[in-house]
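Exercise 7b. Backbone tokens:
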């Protein structure tokens, strides 16, 4: 393995006099310290991307404060760059100053809603009130964690989706998958509440991750939802638009086949002159039958510049023979309006839209109840820092 993927790891062990069997006069190493060392060494040995730099032992020191000699030595090694990963048996070994630990989490993860969820290698009740510890002894086929701070790791996007599959209902899981595979992120400081980024992952990458990690809990639910996840959404409403039109009728969509999201096309020379650009990116399109469905959001398409740009794009597409259907935020939020849009799209396909799934109405109501808002994935106080994107 390349050295850049190896983490120099500090193993931190602590036991206070009140916790167990330390003899204050003899200062002999306690049995619990030995147990902690064995557990952490075994964990490192099972992960080839970890190597032990040093072991730090505060035997007989309280976790109520951080005035501990080995803890200070470890922090010095971290600050010097000699250690970039710290492993403890559970969070209480690191410290019992829950307020200070919570403050650190607030600083590093200001957008994440509480409770925080952490993965641990041994059964443990979290010592931090804001955190829930989850036991995981699964032998992953690869390193499924991403380092975001010294000693702080987050699940990779692919593992994150599988973990979400354990708790989220189908439609909510699809929405989360669309966000992981989308070109956007929530930015409350932006005028429209969104920022642009390269997708964190893709449907194919999540599928490959599940195949490589046979037996992973949540894999079955993840595979089921992945069939309905779409790549490259530029916003949550765009992903929802695609879901309403494309999801199987069994799941409350209209099941219109072969619709693509944000697929770049090269128009004719005449259309390029009209649009004054070399390529066009329709929101939703069906190239074979030359159908385009454009989402006109409240926050992005009401300025004079954007209105003019949208008009030239629409005229260019129509010049190349495309049927263009526009959908506003109000229409997208209205199930009856979207039925009209689906009827138009199906008519352009040359067939009448027929609902054949027995539970379509129930699933359709669930789909709309799920909506496109991602507010539940971010803390309200953080979101209030700016204007949220078109919410539903």
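Sequence design result:
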């Amino acid at each position: 393995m390349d050295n850049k993927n190896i983490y120099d790891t500090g193993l931190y062990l602590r036991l206070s006099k009140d916790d167990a069997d330390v003899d204050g006069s003899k200062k002999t190493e306690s049995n619990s310290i030995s147990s902690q060392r064995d557990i952490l060494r075994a964990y490192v040995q099972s992960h080839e991307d970890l190597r032990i730099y040093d072991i730090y032992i505060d035997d007989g020191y309280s976790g109520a404060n951080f005035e501990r000699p080995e803890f200070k030595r470890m922090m010095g090694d971290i600050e010097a760059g000699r250690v970039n990963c710290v492993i403890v048996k559970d969070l209480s070994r690191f410290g019992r100053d829950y307020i200070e630990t919570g403050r650190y989490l607030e600083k590093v993860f200001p957008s994440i809603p509480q409770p925080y969820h952490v993965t641990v290698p041994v059964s443990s009740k979290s010592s931090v009130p804001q955190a829930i510890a989850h036991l995981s002894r699964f032998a992953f086929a690869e390193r499924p964690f991403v380092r975001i701070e010294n000693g702080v790791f987050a699940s990779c996007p692919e593992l994150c989706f599988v973990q979400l599959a354990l708790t989220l209902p189908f439609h909510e899981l699809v929405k989360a998958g669309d966000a992981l595979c989308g070109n956007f992120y929530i930015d409350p400081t932006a005028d429209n509440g969104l920022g642009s980024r390269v997708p964190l992952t893709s449907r194919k990458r999540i599928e490959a991750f599940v195949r490589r990690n046979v037996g992973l809990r949540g894999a079955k639910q993840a595979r089921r939802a992945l069939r309905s996840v779409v790549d490259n959404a530029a916003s949550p409403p765009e992903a929802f638009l695609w879901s309403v039109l494309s999801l199987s009728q069994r799941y409350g969509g209209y099941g219109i086949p072969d619709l693509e999201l944000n697929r770049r096309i090269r128009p004719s020379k005449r259309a390029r002159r009209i649009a004054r650009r070399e390529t066009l990116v329709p929101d939703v399109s069906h190239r074979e039958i030359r159908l385009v469905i454009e989402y006109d959001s409240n926050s992005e398409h009401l300025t004079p510049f954007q209105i003019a740009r949208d008009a030239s794009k629409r005229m260019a597409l129509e010049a190349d023979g495309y049927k263009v259907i526009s959908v506003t935020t109000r229409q997208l939020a209205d199930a009856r309006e979207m039925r009209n849009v689906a009827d138009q799209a199906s008519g352009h396909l040359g067939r009448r839209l027929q609902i054949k799934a027995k539970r379509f109405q129930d699933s359709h109501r669930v789909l709309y109840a799920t909506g496109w808002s991602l507010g539940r994935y971010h803390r309200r106080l953080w979101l209030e820092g700016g204007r949220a994107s078109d919410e539903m």
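Instructor comment: The first helix runs from residue 31 to 45. Confidence is low (pLDDT under 50) at residues 20-29, 386-391.
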